[in-house]
Amino acid sequence: MARIPLLQLTDISLTFGGDPVFDDLSLVVQPGDRLALVGRNGSGKSTLMKVMAGLVEADKGEVISGPGVGIGYMEQDPDLTGFATLGDFATAALPPGDAYKVDRVGEGLKLDLDRDVSTASGGERRRAALARLMAEEPDLMLLDEPTNHMDIEAIGWLENELKSTRSGFVLISHDRAFLRALSHGTLWVDRGMVRRQEKGFAAFEDWRDKTWEEEDLQRHKLNRKIKAEARWAVEGISARRKRNQGRVRALQGLRAERAAQIKRQGAADLALDAGPKSGKKVIEADGIAKSYEDKLILRPFSLTVQRGDRIALVGPNGVGKTTLLKMLIGHETPDSGTVKLGTKLDIAVFDQARAQLDPDKSLWDNLTLDKEMAVSGRSDQVMVRGAPRHVVGYLKDFLFDEAQARAPVRSLSGGEKVRLLLAKIMARVSNLLVLDEPTNDLDVETLDLLQDLLDQYEGTVLLVSHDRDFLDRVAVTTIAMEGRGRAVVYAGGWSDYQDQRQATEKVEKAAKVKQKAAAKPAAPKPAAKPGLSFTEKHRLEALPAEMERLEAEIGKLSELLSEAELFTREPVKFRKATEALTERQAKLSAAEEEWLILEEKAEG
């Protein structure tokens, strides 16, 4: 029996008065669909989602939802007018008895529902819109960048919730790990078309590259055919040409076909210049600590940053990552301890607040009026890594067109603002790059370019991000800020940190089991205990020593893996140590479980 679609779009065309955003677009969303909606910044993903939600009316075509189907859309900039608190907004559409659903979601998203809407940040407003949507539990959820401005813990909570939901959903996100974990199908928006593949985001990049290769091959064949037909048209005699007007018309048709093809947008032309090398020791922090009134940010913490290091700071929102970052580069003074910066440092900072951009000024003015980019006597040029460039030409490197150059920054999308800030940062020569939340709003292609650029960069990188995939690709050392002022250094990226943290937790668990066993009053030999076989009695006697040995081995391996340079200096040793650690963790877990079972059995 055929399923009734949740939503069906048929022959949708939309222009906004200019070039088509979509033309004759059709797609169907079925019950249970979990779709990643992907495409470059500016390709029309958010516009398509608004069409699906009924917030934007198409010039032509139909949008039909199934009978009785509830569709919910997570607004990027929700209107909270008339509501006193975020909780009032989130519960407004729910029956009084269902308000607990918002409380549960708010806790998972780390949202203060009592926050006055007048003091709420943009990120908090968006999370309130998400909490409202999830509590309503519609049949189809349309989620536009739900993870922006969330920390990794909240992203993990949301990921688990979406895995267990019965609702279908269409999801826009820049977080590749999030998309891979959740999507079962992919909608790809590309030059006014929407292609669909019944595979999740993990298969998207191979699919995209193959599609583009086939497209390039077809374009090459078309150009060769046009060239051959054009040569015939020039060389053919008049009489023959008269008899073959159909062939001439066919040539005109081929040329029209080529002209109608929409050229793919090129990639942003990102570049970094590390300039002169810094000293070998870039930063030396010794016992630095920080508190704000009664809130402890950082207990005494020491760190040495060497030239070429790629260090990521991770942890929940509000834990103090940006504060630690500012202390490390001398922009904020610790309460105690010292920070010594190395020699010959040129620091470039990408700040998460985007404070380097004036929203009321144009893109042009944001570049040309920057003291470090201004070219004396020229209002149409900027200094880019030591050489003058025309401001429009430089903006085109970052995929802005000439019309946008005179538009105010506030008119840009989130991804466009990030690209403009990267344009300012990358115009400088730097050998210490400080990136605080650079990945928000960037499309997959630009993230790939940024990652490749950082791989090739000869300077040092300090990075804050909640994008797990990006952290794994870039970081070789991770500083985890785990709350209550605790900061711990781990080797590797996000996944390596998670593995090592789990190892530590297992050691702590084993220690508690051991402590419990040691605290038991002296008793006769296990032979006197009821319920155990001869073999089980001896096994119960042997297990504490075995657990102690495994704990010691895990401790040594964890200490080895905590060496910040091991991953880059001896990758084979790092891999073998990681495998050995995983094996011993599994054995310890099994031994603990066996000890508990035998102990309970012995006690009857």
Structure commentary:
Helix content is 43%, strand content 21%. The protein starts with 6 loop residues before the first strand and ends with a helix. The model is unreliable at 525-529 (pLDDT under 50). The longest helix is centred in the middle third of the chain and has 32 residues, at 204-235. It has 604 residues and is an alpha/beta fold. It has a six-stranded mixed sheet, with helices on both faces. It has a six-stranded mixed sheet with strand order 14-18-19-12-20-21, sandwiched between helices. It has a three-stranded antiparallel sheet with strand order 2-1-4, covered by helices on one side.
Provide the descriptors you would attach to this structure in a database record:
604 residues; alpha/beta; Rossmann fold; 4 domains; 6-stranded mixed β-sheet; globular
Summarize the SSE layout with pairings.
Elements: E1 7-14, E2 22-29, E3 34-38, H1 45-53, E4 60-65, E5 71-73, H2 86-91, H3 99-108, H4 122-136, E6 140-144, H5 152-164, E7 168-172, H6 176-182, E8 185-190, E9 193-197, H7 204-235, H8 238-243, H9 245-260, E10 281-292, E11 295-306, E12 310-314, H10 321-328, E13 336-341, E14 347-350, H11 363-368, E15 374-375, E16 378-384, E17 387-390, H12 391-397, H13 402-405, H14 414-426, E18 432-436, H15 444-456, E19 460-464, H16 468-474, E20 477-483, E21 486-491, H17 494-519, H18 534-561, H19 566-569, H20 571-602
Parallel strand pairs: 3-7, 3-8, 5-6, 6-7, 12-19, 12-20, 14-18, 18-19
Antiparallel strand pairs: 1-2, 1-4, 8-9, 10-11, 10-13, 15-16, 16-17, 20-21
Helix pairs in contact: 3-4, 7-9, 17-18, 17-20, 18-20
